[in-house]
Amino acid sequence: MSIRPALLAFFSFTWRVLDGLRKVLHLILLVILFAAVIGALQTSIPIVPRHAALVVNPQGRIVEQLTGDPIDRAIADAAGEGEPETLLRDVVDAIETAKDDKRIRLMVLDVSQMSGGGLSKLQEIGAAMRAFRESGKKIVAVGEYFDQAQYYLAAQADEVYLDPLGFVFVDGYDYYRMFYKKALDKLAVDVNVFRVGTHKSYTEVYTRSEMSPEEREETTLWLNALWNSYQADVTAARKLQPGALAAYVTQLGGLVKGAEGDTARVAFAQGLVTALRTREQVSEDIKTLVGEDETTHEFHSVELGDYVAALRSEEALTPGSGKQVGVIIASGEILDGPQPPGTVGGDSTAEVIRNARYDDDVKAVVVRIDSPGGSMFASEQIYRELKALREAGKPVVVSMSSVAASGGYYIATGADEIWASPTTITGSIGVFAAIPTFQGTLGKIGVNVDGVGTTPLSGDFRLDRPLGPVARDILQSGVEHAYDVFLDRVAENRKKTAAEIDGVAQGRVWAGSDAQTRGLIDSLGTFEQAIESAAKRADLGDDYDVTYLDPQLTWREALAMEFRAAILWAGARLGIGVQQPALVRQVLDPLQREVARWARFNDPRHLYSYCPCAP
Fold it and tell me: CA 509 → CA 120, 418, 491, distances in Å?
């Protein structure tokens, strides 16, 4: 509906050519580096010591799927510029395997380089940790500082050691957004918004200067649901009195002042940690349990990445049963066309689902959704393929991760059954369209746009002119129709009327526990339970394999993945490892993120079902 000027198309084409050339040149560089790495290494499969501690040390955010094109990731990691991420399934699989691995005597948790990832993901790791402890093996957490996400995992350990100069910083959940109306007014930018849903609040950042009462009401509900769940889990794990954690947060200022600034002493006094000990002191204790490496003089250990590499190698050598529950990851914003991992492409994700339909070994499919939504058309493409998969006789079960809202919920409606965590953020059933026009901005510098067209619609969608009445009618009618389609999809799946769904829709965001009460999901439970449910629906019994179904990689992408793995593993051992990015690089400026988000949005009709709902 919008016109792309020839100049923009030219620059876009030029950038693609240059970017492609850059990738080729970097690939050549990686080939040279890879050759050097291979020459320095004897094997690429790490060896697990006979007696060791498993060091679980997640890097960056915990994610369902690594973000970005494999080549770009390999280049960034090799250059020390990549934003670290750790796969949730790697952490959970490692802990679950180590539970029964006789070589692993205990677990050491080091979350100093972890930067969060959603409460529901932390809860899945926490459940695996509790099962590890129940097997009779100890977990020791050690750190100089624990933020809220880090402390959630640390609290699940048998022993939590904090440095005597450390700090446990828990502050609850918040949700703040920048509002741009006054800035847009000063720039004379008109953002033309069309929406359906009294609580569909994403576009309010352009039309208001503060949070609307409706958004404030719903946000308070789901934030409290997360905070209450966090408190319940931590107080149970640390055997604290109910309300102890809330008291720690609300009284922290006075407690620290009373302790003359000694934050570590406050955490210990409040029962949040076992003792105040340095990392070196804890290390000496662990040596008595697993022994000392004579070369490094550290305790015998295997790190998470190495253990996962060994685990995956063993899995590759294990013959399959021929009966598979396929897992498809839908992680990130939903965009039109083919998209790289970390986003959900309408074409690319639909292709993976289509391949599963024609794969005789795949008997059922679990779709793991961790998405705030995005393109309405792309969501519909994915929904259609899931429906076709079901019609082909293969059960489809959705497992919701931290967020499955708006378009993320839309694609969930294509399943036979929907599972979620109590702390999943979901719902947000609504649609909007937003188109900025810049005629006022141009007028400020003396530029006026004038001309003629052959029809009343000619030029109505130009960004340098006000949207015409016909354009406005088209967009508003399109949004209303899209909302009706959304309601119909949900109503059909949930076996309710569209009017009943409308009563809990209107863009409202729900925590998983509230969504179940309102009939938007079927069951509260884990990813593992969703897989078991899919296997049961397909009558597979207990003899089946779980296989992750990913888009087919080109030879360049597959080669880049091998380079990335080899470089990261070898670099850590040769002293040329990837540099850790500065904290400031991990926390992007909100305005920059907003601009980047709109640059990615590409629905052909400018219709979006998107929710920025993440605390």
Answer: 16, 17, 17
For 200-247, how does the pLDDT look when each residue is reduced to its tens digit (9 = 90+)?
888 899 999 999 999 999 999 999 999 999 999 999 999 999 999 999
Judge contact between 96 and 73, C-beta under 8 A.
no
Which tokens go with 203?
A: 């576009």
**pLDDT category, 586, cuts 50, 70, 90?**
very low
CB 587 within 8 A of CB 577: no
8 A C-beta contact, residue 402 and residue 424: yes
Host H or E run for residue 48:
none
Q: Is residue 444 within 8 Å of 474, Cβ to Cβ?
A: no
Q: Which residues pair with 85 in a beta bridge?
A: 61
Q: What DSSP letter does each residue of 135-197 carry, written as one string?
A: TT-EEEEEEEEE-HHHHHHHTTSSEEEEEEEEEE------------HHHHHHHT-EEEEEEE-
- Give counts: helices (H), strands (E), the chain: 24, 22
Catalytic residues: 200, 406
Residues 6+ positions from 490 with CB-CB distance below 8 Å: 409, 413, 429, 496, 501, 505, 520
| Three-state DSSP class for residue 6 | helix
pTM (two decimals): 0.85
Q: In the numeric block, which tokens belong to residue 390?
A: 């079901």
Tens-digit pLDDT profile for residues 281-301: 999 999 999 999 888 889 999
Q: Which two tokens stand for residue 83?
A: 């934003």
Three-state SS at 339 = coil
Q: Whole-angstrom Cα distance, residue 128 to residue 25?
A: 43
| Cα distance between residue 151 and residue 157, in whole Å | 10
To 5 degrees, how large is the angle CA 178–CA 184–CA 188?
180
**Contact, 483 vs 196, CB < 8 A?**
yes
Residue 239 region by backbone torsions, left for phi larger than 0, else alpha for psi between -120 and 50, else beta: left
Residue identified by tokens 């690939």 is 27
- Helix spans in 392-511 (H): 407-412, 439-444, 469-494, 498-502
Cα 584 to its chain centre, rounded Å, is 20
Q: At what angle do helices 304-317 and 555-574 cross, to 10 degrees?
A: 140
User: Residue 371 in 3-state DSSP?
Assistant: strand
d(CA 219, CA 250): 20
